[in-house]
Structures are given as C-alpha cells and as structure tokens.
Amino acid sequence: MDDLKHGTRDKRGNWAPRDPVAGVAPFYALPPKPMELLAWLKGYLFPWNLLFFISALVYWAWVIPPVAVMQTLAWGWVLKLLALNALGIALFYGAFELRLYMQRAQHTRFKYNAKFPADQKSGVFWFNDQQIDGALRTFLHGVPIWTALEVGALWAYANGYAPWLAWADHPVWLALMVFLVPFIQEAHFYCIHRLIHVPFLYKHVHSVHHNSVNPSPWSSLAMHPVEHLLYFGVGLWHLILPSNPFIMLFQMHRAAFGAIPGHVGFDKMELGGDRAIDMHAYAHYLHHKYFEVNYGDGIVPFDALFGTWHDGTKQADEKMKARFRDKKARANARKGGMPAE
Ligand SMILES: [Zn+2]
Ligand SMILES: [Zn+2]
C-alpha cells in the first residue's frame, strides 16, 4: 500500500497521518452529526471491540468453570485460567511482533517511528532489549496480576458478594453496559494514568512503561506491577456497578488484549491488496513521544477538556510547547519566590 496517500513522511523517515486525530468523539457534538456518528460507531465496534467481545464469549463458553467450582479458590481452575490467559497473550501479541517487527513484513510503511527497537539497544531495558523487557514483564507479573484480579472477581460473584444481574431480567441495561465497557476503561485509565504521572509515582512506577519511547507490541503491558494492579483494577468496577461476570470478563479482555493497538507503532497493518486494519494508535504514540499529552484516547474527552489533547498537527505542537514553557516558568517563579536561607 502507498502510505503517502494517507499521511506524510519527514526527513528522518517518520510517518504521520495527514488528518488530525479527533480528541472528542462526535456524539458530544451539538447539533448532532448523524453521518459522523455512524462512521465513528463503525470504528468503535470494528474490529477491536468486537474482537475482544468475541474472545470474552469464547472464554465464557469454554474456559470459565461452573459457579459451584468458582465458589472455592482451588489451584485447578485458577492455573488453567492463568495458562490460557498467557497463551492468548502470547499468540495475539506474538502475531503482531512476528509480522511487523521480526519479519518486518511491511518495512516502515505506516510506521510512526522509522527505527526498529531491535536496532537500538538501551540500558533502560532488562537485557538492554525493549522486546525482551516487555515480554518478561508481561508474563512475570502482567498476566498473573490480570488473572488474580479476574479470579477474585469470579469468586466474589460465585459466592454472592457482588450483584449478578441476569440477562433475562435486565437485557437492555446489560446491553448498555456492554456498549459502555470501552468508556469505563477510558475513564478509569485516564484517572489512574494522571495519578501515575505525579512525579513520585512516575519515577517509581510509570517510568517503566515510558521507557518505550518508540513502542512496539511487547510495550503494551511493559509495566511496573503497581501499574498492572491499577490498570487491571478496571474489572473490579463490575463488582460495584449493576453488572454481571461476563461483562467483567469482557472488561478484563478489553484491558489485556486491547492494550495492543495503541502500542503496535504502525497506523495500519496491511493485510494484502488494498486491505488493512486501522490501529487508531497515533494519539497514544504521541503520549509515548511527548509524555504530557493524550492521557486518554478521546472516547471520553478529558484531554480535550483539560487542554492536554495533541491531535498531531503543528498547531497542537505549538500549544504543547507553550504549555511546557508556562509550567517551567511557574516552577522557576516558585523557586525564585522561596525565601533565602
Ligand atoms: Zn502506553
Ligand atoms: Zn503515561
């Protein structure tokens, strides 16, 4: 595919999409814009959210044990869930890693950063290697923490410690909850993300994730265990909200498998001919590049509200630099204003 039909490439070889990235989903627009809304809805459902919904359905049908089994915490079902979660992540993340970073099947077409992390060893990573570091953190504590929280939630449901609404009694409400899963994720992630950008937590926790300035698939869950806890904690909202364990499972799959599009590093993955999958990833790529922009992805427009949205344009770049200058000036003024000792 000709990626220059969709974007531009600078002299370093870095590709960027031509159109600004929307920081506000069109359903907040007044007066309403039905055609834009339909186009947005299509992108909202296909392919990613539908895929994670299907993965949750498959687990619900074939992996999650009967309620009587889940009432007791026993190694059998817990280890089986851990193994299948690890296998799912290995296959799904591994497919992107293999195709785009090991085979380099589309070279740098649609790639935001022209360089490949494997060509840039760095001491910030375990074994000086971004991919090994990310994969180890994913399997050593990412998948276990995800599984532990999921097991805890299933156990709570099975023992009647959380409201379990039945589909037969509340079909409309539960369908709405399913639809809102990405919104819950976005609102939760935005809040914990702002929290871990507080200097102390950034230094000790979130900097691990930001070591990947040029993210690749295994960067998705390359996090400190505390960030994993906060990140996968999103599933626990369903123990408080009127919901049910299947929707909790979907929420967890959205977090675990859904971390990948934002970290693939390519705007589109080519499928042959003129077909490609959209990653919708530029906003989060810019977060990895500039740190203090795009804490969320725009489904819930917090960034637009609080002035931290970067849509990839030159104007947004200028606005961001002005904000950084202001921040620095305020910090200097504070220092200068301190009484001399
Ligand atoms: Zn990230
Ligand atoms: Zn961050």
Give structural notes:
By secondary structure, the protein is mostly helical. Helix 4 (75-102) packs antiparallel against helix 5, helix 5 (130-158) packs across helix 8 (225-232) and helix 5 (130-158) runs antiparallel to helix 10. Strand 1 (7-9) and strand 2 form a beta hairpin. It has one domain. The mean pLDDT is 95. The protein is built from 13 helices and 4 strands. It has a two-stranded antiparallel ribbon with strand order 1-2. The protein has a two-stranded antiparallel ribbon with strand order 3-4. Residues 209, 262-263, 284, 288 line the site of one zinc ion.
Domain count: the total is 1
The biggest beta sheet is recorded as:
2 strands, antiparallel
Distinct small molecules bound, one entry per kind: zinc ion
In the predicted model, the low-confidence regions spanning at least 5 consecutive residues are: none
Outline type: globular
Radius of gyration: 21 Å
Distance between the termini: 64 Å
Oligomer: single chain
Lateral strand order in the biggest sheet:
1-2
Question: What fraction strand?
Answer: under 5%
**What is the overall number of helices?**
13
**Main structural class:** mainly alpha
**Mean pLDDT, all residues:** 95
Helical content (DSSP H or I, runs of 4+): 55-70%
| H-E order | EEHHHHHHHHHHEEHHH
Can you count the beta strands?
4
